[in-house]
Design a protein that fits this description.
By secondary structure, the protein is of the alpha+beta class. The chain contains 26 helices and 17 strands.
């Protein structure tokens, strides 16, 4: 829901600032096509784009309280705002609307910065206090909704999207941080709170900050998102708590004054959401996308789920032309370079869904909460090897290093003889250090991929290997990949994506789970599958995760070969990429000598991003102003 941009300065707002704000707002108009408002103070200015979901007539933002002291804007949804509102009314507060923003501002007026702990939902909040001349900013616990900011000597500029800074006249261009880019080639994204450029940062998830004149922003955590397995609680009790929490969350996430739909893949996560949602709201529509290559299609399995649940199923069978036509817009809307192969599929299914509904339910977060990724299963055999005496591990590690890549068991030995902190960076691992050195011209041997996750693993000390992997994914993969593509690509079509698994109450049920609750009987997410086995067909309960499969691996050997070669040879990002080495990877992939599609996609994505945001930034700005982006 919605988007915003703002400026908080150490000096008065100027006409140039006003123009910047107007253009920044125009740049993110896709986040809120229903209304556009702004407010200009002495040294604070804010613009807001509204996507009307709740209180369609009166929920206008920016909202200023009756006293005139506080002005608030926010992007997202607060699912317990009616309960908070009712409580405040019993305490004597009065309301002119039934909007979330009025409840937020009133609660802040009553309780100050600690109010954020009471909110249940997805949100990025800004509240301007004219008396104290401060700005409160806060972000939801899991980082579902974005908050970008850039500090300079005269204050701070902020926005819901990275692309809005194209119109920050005090930031002449997007720079590229060599260190962050080096880590990008391992992760396929730059981990929050950093971005690919030095100038722009992200307010960390689960943090808030008070902006004051002539002071640097100092984010503070307000919630602890960590796993605390409790074997004293029985499986049956955990299962009951989980089911109750998730059903309650799905019901809460359906709060809306406009139609709600659901994404439906072939897996358990979306099937559960669709099943529960269809009971709450009969007639709900479910949406699935595929690209016509049978082994990469989820449509048939999703259709079986839809038939079992008796829901209307809208299927988008896209092709190579649709993929290519959408590609540049996808790279633009993602903001930072983010090389997840599923992004075009998500963009296209959001485009289709937006023709039918304004709100969509999605299954993000389930894998991180309940242990759903295939790689998690490797924690069991890896732990057995890692538990061997050190001399034996040393021998096995030496053997693993000299084994050819295609020898079965090589990677298991590598994992089992290497500490999790030195080998796991999240659900994707694209290039290792040796590979990066071969093509990344600014490679720094003093930097290691695990430097980016060192603090994360430090905070996960004492947990099992599985829980450490989940914790790492929760703070890297989920925030910097899954939620980025979910938010940016849905909002590109003015579609609000809601994620019922990423709920405080659901996490409370998930954080107590032990490894055996998650990995059991040869499957992942065991307790989740078991808890909802009565409402989802048996085949779906046990089906492994696919996750918006796109046949890029196949296309890069055939249909996309010339297209990819053209991007690699284009006169962009030459100072970063050894193009000849990249072409060698492409040729090796084409001939089937190696499977390099993820590596190639990561390089192609960066070159495309660099063209749009750096080399051709003036063209991009003009396309935004002309309404072409």
């Amino acid at each position: 829901m919605c988007g915003f941009a703002g400026i908080f300065k150490n000096s008065p707002i100027t006409e140039e600032d006003k123009k910047d704000l107007e253009n920044m707002s125009k740049c993110i108009r896709h986040r809120g096509p229903d209304d556009s408002q702004s407010i200009i103070g002495e040294n604070c200015a804010m613009a807001f784009r509204r996507l009307s979901i709740i209180d369609l007539e009166k929920g206008v933002q920016p909202f200023t309280d009756k006293s005139g002291r506080y002005t608030g804007i926010f992007n997202g949804e607060i699912y317990n705002y009616l309960e908070i509102r009712d409580r405040l009314m019993k305490e004597g507060y009065t309301f002119e609307t039934r909007s979330e923003i009025e409840t937020i501002v009133t609660l802040y007026e009553k309780e100050g910065e600690e109010f954020i702990k009471e909110l249940r939902g997805m949100f990025s909040i800004v509240i301007y206090d004219r008396v104290e001349n401060t700005v409160f900013t806060g972000r939801d616990p899991f980082g579902i909704k974005p908050f970008y900011y850039r500090e300079n000597q005269n204050g701070i500029v902020f926005s819901s999207e990275f692309k809005a800074f194209l119109f920050d006249s005090n930031m002449p261009s997007y720079s590229v941080n060599d260190e962050y880019l080096q880590s990008y080639f391992t992760f396929q994204y730059v981990t929050e709170p950093d971005t690919v450029t030095d100038d722009i940062k992200i307010l960390p998830a689960g943090h808030y900050a008070i902006l004051r004149q002539n002071e640097k922003i100092a984010p503070k955590p307000y919630i602890d998102i960590s796993y605390k397995p409790d074997p004293s609680i029985s499986f049956d009790e955990k299962e009951k708590r989980l089911r109750k929490a998730l059903e309650n969350s799905i019901e809460a996430h359906m709060l809306s004054d406009v139609p709600v739909g659901s994404f439906l893949s072939s897996g358990i996560d979306s099937a559960i959401i669709t099943a529960v949602a269809s009971k709450i709201c009969p007639g709900i529509k479910a949406f699935t996308v595929a690209f016509g290559v049978k082994e990469y299609s989820e449509i048939d399995d999703a259709s079986g789920i839809a038939t079992h649940l008796d829901v209307e199923h809208i299927k988008l069978d896209a092709g190579l032309d649709e993929f290519l036509n959408a590609y540049d817009k996808v790279m633009y809307h993602l903001d930072s370079p983010m090389a997840d192969p599923s992004v075009v599929a998500i963009y296209l299914i959001c485009e289709e869904a937006a023709k039918h509904v304004k709100v969509i339910l999605s299954g993000e977060g389930s894998d991180e909460f309940f242990g759903g990724y295939k790689v998690y299963s490797s924690s069991i055999p890896s732990d057995k090897i890692y538990g061997l005496p050190s001399p034996i591990k040393a021998v096995l590690g030496a053997i693993a290093k000299i084994l050819p890549e295609n020898v079965k068991g090589k990677h298991l030995l590598m994992r089992g003889t290497t500490p999790i902190e030195k080998r796991y960076v999240g659900n994707a691992f694209i290039f290792d250090e040796k590979q990066k050195k071969s093509f990344y011209k600014k490679y720094d041997p003093s930097l290691h991929f695990y430097d980016r996750t060192a603090d994360i693993f430090k905070n996960a000390e004492g947990l099992s290997t599985l829980s450490k992997m989940q914790y790492c994914d929760l703070h890297t993969w989920l925030k910097s990949d899954i939620l980025v593509k979910g938010d940016r690509l849905s909002m590109a079509h003015s579609l609000e994506a809601r994620v019922p698994y990423l709920d405080k109450e659901v996490f409370e049920a998930a954080r107590d789970l032990c490894d055996s609750d998650k990995l059991n009987e040869g499957t992942t997410k065991y307790i989740l599958r078991h808890a909802f086995r009565d409402i989802v067909n048996e085949e779906t309960v046990m089906r492994p995760k696919l996750g918006y499969p796109v046949p890029i691996r196949v296309w890069l050997r055939n249909e996309l070969y010339d297209w990819a070669k053209g991007i690699i040879l284009s006169p962009y990002a030459d100072e970063y990429i050894n193009k000849q080495e990249a072409l060698k990877m492409l040729e090796a992939h084409r001939t089937g000598k190696h499977d390099y599609y993820r590596q190639l996609w990561t390089i192609i994505t960066f070159i495309s991003w660099y063209r749009i945001y750096v080399e051709d930034a003036d063209k991009t700005r003009q396309m935004v102003l002309d309404g072409e982006l």
